[in-house]
Amino acid sequence: MSGKDTSSISFTAHYTGYVWFKQGWSHIRLATRRGACYYYLLKPIEWLARLIVGTDIKTTLLSRHALLDRELERNLNTGHQQVLEIAAGLSPRGWSRIQKRPQLRYIEADLPAMAERKQFLLTELQTPANRHQVLTCNILADEGEDCLAAVLSRHFDVNQPITVITEGLVNYFSRSTIESFWTRLAHALQSFPQSCYLTDVYPEVHQHRFSRMIAQANRLLGFMTRSQFTLHFASDAEAIETLTRCGFRQVEVFNPDQENFGTRIPRAHGGSVVRVIRACQPAR
Questions:
Q1: Closest to 95 measured CA to CA, from 71, 68, 75, 119
Q2: What's the predicted TM-score (pTM) here?
Q3: pLDDT tier at 9 (50, 70, 90 boundaries)?
Q4: What is the enclosing helix (H) or strand (E) of 205?
Q5: How far is Cα 232 from Cα 200, in angstroms, rounded to an integer?
Q6: Any idea what the CATH number is for the domain that residue 103 is in?
């Protein structure tokens, strides 16, 4: 596991990085000792959550990651050869894809401390620097060299299709803030001949039989990450309407409960609390 100081990495990045490693999806260099500590400390809580609620954090993380991977592969198999993953953290997605696809250009974007840390790890893993790198990006900025539009125009070929990914990001922002980001993203992606945005979102859980317990867990997560974890959308239809209003022309919502993962991923018996969204600008 990584021995370099990881104090600048968030709790969720440590934990999710270790979950992916334990699942066999990541490299040991992308797992941290702190992530291992969180992973084993949470085991009794997750066992209790599965017993009472029918699901746990790990099941949710694995199902959303698998769905995002599936949709990314769908794009890569149909001509997308450039990817931007925003707030990638310790995600193994770029590392695993770049080894198998010699034409792929994969750029990760994050806050400065995380970007520096991830670039160090990718250098250790000897990933090709001309095709796989980590940049800083401020998704809330309208201008500047690290704003979203600048990153897309300076580091990608606007004559080729592109896929943009965010995982575990949008619910840490208010609905109005994330809609502003989606609007800027949809506008920036219009410069490309074909584009696709993939993300996960945690919807409102008023209809879930354990909605109160889930709400308490979300408040705890917000406290641990020093942020406000906000649930978005009362229905899949509302999510589709919102992304369409933000400027995306084709929007699909995937529910892990309706997907067949085989035996690779445990199923949320109490009902999934996450959705994966595919929002695209089709070929011109």
A1: 119
A2: 0.90
A3: low
A4: none
A5: 11
A6: 3.40.50.150
